[in-house]
Amino acid sequence: MRINKFLAQSGLASRRKAEEFVLAGKVKINGKVVTDLSTDVKETDSVVCDGKPIRVSNNFVYFKLNKPKGYVCTVDDEHGRKTVIELMRGVKARIFPIGRLDYDSEGLLLLTNDGELSNILTKPNSKIEKTYVVTIEGVIEQGEIKKLSSGVDIGGYVTKPCSVSVLEARADTTRLQFVITEGKNRQIRKMLDAIDKKVLLLKRTQIGEIRLGGLSRGEYSKLSVKDMKYINKLKSN
Q1: 83 backbone φψ class: left, alpha, beta (φ>0; ψ -120 to 50)
Q2: Cα–Cα dist 88/83, whole Å
Q3: Is residue 28 classed exposed, middle or buried when 0-12, 13-18 and 19+ CB atoms within 10 A define those classes?
Q4: How far is residue 188's CA from residue 165's CA, in Å, rounded to a whole number?
């Protein structure tokens, strides 16, 4: 098993983060530092990361959280900001968030110790749909919706085609639904900024077949049986 996959399956972190640990020289196999991502790990090998012994575990846990504004999607934050892990009171397993919602956004966030699932959901070609409800200032024209749907330049990158629809139109605000299959940093905010629209509220409501449901802000729950069937289907493909 490759070292990055081994670390991910141990529940240490996502595969991407695991690769960072290896490249930073924080991982040792049988007492020797390894920085080559193609390094294989055998069952008899002793693996240590940052001085801590690492073992593959199948005791995975899966949660969904209604992330409020004002929290960062990391395990810890070097700037001292509140992290989503602080909201997971009572969870004893060492978990991490899958993907991110920016500091000012809210809604559905998945947390787990299953690094392989994190890799499946966040890899660029996953094509897993993510649904957002966005309230903007003012009104939006059909031509602008068509432009957003077709793809806009968000600073040297043109977004992929997506679904954009109006949920509610008022005199001073408009509520939109975005369904996208990619997740560039602050993508929807940048898309709306490209057509001079101000975001008042951005909330993720669904990832693939997993819905936020009736969770209150800051509340979390284990994934349901239905959600887990979807997770297992993703992992078996």
Answers
A1: beta
A2: 10
A3: middle
A4: 13
Query: How does DSSP classify residue 40?
Result: B
Q: How far is CA 34 from CA 7, 45, 49, 79, in A?
A: 13, 13, 10, 30
CA distance 114 to 12: 8
pLDDT tens per residue across span 164-211: 999 999 999 999 999 999 988 899 999 999 999 999 999 999 999 999
CB atoms within 10 A of CB 111: 25
- End-to-end, the C-alpha distance of the chain in Å comes to 19
The single-letter DSSP state of residue 105 is: -
Catalytic residue among 102, 153, 172, 227: 102
Q: What is the mean pLDDT of the chain?
A: 92
Phi then psi for residue 49, to 5 deg, are -125, 120
Greatest pairwise CA separation for the chain in angstroms: 67
Q: Is 102 a catalytic residue?
A: yes
What is the β-pairing status of strands 199-207 and 106-112?
A: parallel
**Cα 206-212-216 angle, rounded to 5 deg:** 150
For each of the domains in the chain, give its residue range(s) and CATH number, in order of start: 3-54 (3.10.290.10), 62-124+215-236 (3.30.70.580), 130-207 (3.30.70.1560)
Distance CA 90, CA 10 (A): 21
Q: What are the two backbone dihedrals, phi and then psi, of residue 92, each rounded to the nearest 5 degrees?
A: -85, -25
pTM score above 0.90: no
